[in-house]
Amino acid sequence: MRLRHAAAGLLLALVLGAPPVPPASVATEPDSAFGAYWHDGKAELDGYRYTLTRYGQKRRGQAVAVYVTEPFSRAKNVKVDNPARNPGDTFDVLKLNLVRDFQTGIYDYNTMTSLFVRSDTFDPVKVSFSSTEWCGNVYEELRLTPALVDQKLSSYFEDESAVRSVPRPKGGLLEEELFVRLRGLNGDYLRAGESRTVPFLPSAFRRRLTHQPLLWTSARIERLAATPSVVVPAGRFSARVYSVAIANGSEGLFFIETAYPHRIVRWDWKSAAASPSSRAGGNASPGARSGLSADSNDSGELAGSDRLEYWKLHNVGDERYLARLGLRPGVATPGAR
User: Fold this and answer.
1) Kindly report the CA angle at 135 between 130 and 138, in degrees rounded to 5?
2) Going by C-beta distance under 8 Å and a sequence separation of 6 or more, which residues neighbour residue 165?
3) What is the pLDDT of residues 242-281, one digit of tens each?
4) Which residue(s) pair with 307 in the sheet?
5) Mean per-residue pLDDT for 56-81?
6) 37 or 301, which is more confident?
7) pLDDT at res. 7
């Protein structure tokens, strides 16, 4: 199944017909680890055409990935406003805010994952996740130490809120890390043709949509030998391809542009096997589902990219910058007028 999925993905990647669109900005490989590219005072903004399976049906929306470096406090586990005040408590992180917005019938979902990794090692130190839809709010925070993953979960579902800790296995990988690790910002994660099997923690986003507990499994990650030409709304890119197969779960393909900064051109998750739980409604009680169902599978195609000081672009009229990311204000709903 995994090989068929990979082959199908590669075949789609070779489809011709979209005119090449140059990236919004061009960068060369940095001379040193991480390089000045990521400390230029701007954020990388990547907009995606987004598709998700929810309640057994395909949904379309928008997604944006925001990558930015910032100072981080060891003691407070948050961004530092003034690093000079306590430099011994501060270290540099790369933050990824991955926003997914999509419609489900009459109501919409607004979700965001925030991943904080050390800029020198890309080791994760914190993950937070929020989901807002018409049934209610959910917020989850994971704090990571070398030995533990500490979870705080606040949910509108009865008996689901919890504070717990699970051991952190050596070499374990969080699903959220794939959006940083596979980019190879400071060296390739794998060489072409290589593979490895790692302890794997499904993402907060995946666990939310499937109502699964915090539980480690395993995943096989492989970098394919081919570097196909991938056509997406943002243009045509030469890409490295990684496949990720979660044990008894979903299979994903990640297409990473070969040129620096190695943006994620496309990702695509599919179910290894159909699960009856994928047709369950959103108000099913926790534990009513088993396995990693199709309801958690999503995909994104790069629609546009830029480096901007987006936090300054909050005035009326600044919505025009969304066009650079291939996005428009609000969630794009097919058929809406």
Assistant:
1) 20
2) 148, 149, 150, 151
3) 999 999 889 999 999 999 999 999 999 998 754 333 333 3
4) 44
5) 95
6) 301
7) 43
Phi then psi for 40, rounded to 5 degrees? Answer: -100, 10
pTM: 0.85
Confidence band of 294 (pLDDT split at 50, 70, 90)? confident
Whose tokens are 């197969």? That residue is 245
Report which of 315, 321, 220, 226 is spatially closest to residue 272, judged by C-alpha positions. Answer: 220
Q: Which of 75-84, 90-99, 106-115, 226-235 has the lowest mean pLDDT?
A: 75-84
**pLDDT of 21 above 80:** no
| Assigned token pair, 316 | 């009326």
- Rounded distance between C-alpha atoms, residue 234 and residue 261, angstroms: 15
* CB-CB contact of 167 with 147 (8 Å): yes
Task: Quote the tokens at residue 53.
Answer: 């399976």
**What is the DSSP pairing of strand 173-174 with strand 195-201?**
parallel
Is 27 a residue whose pLDDT tops 70? Answer: no
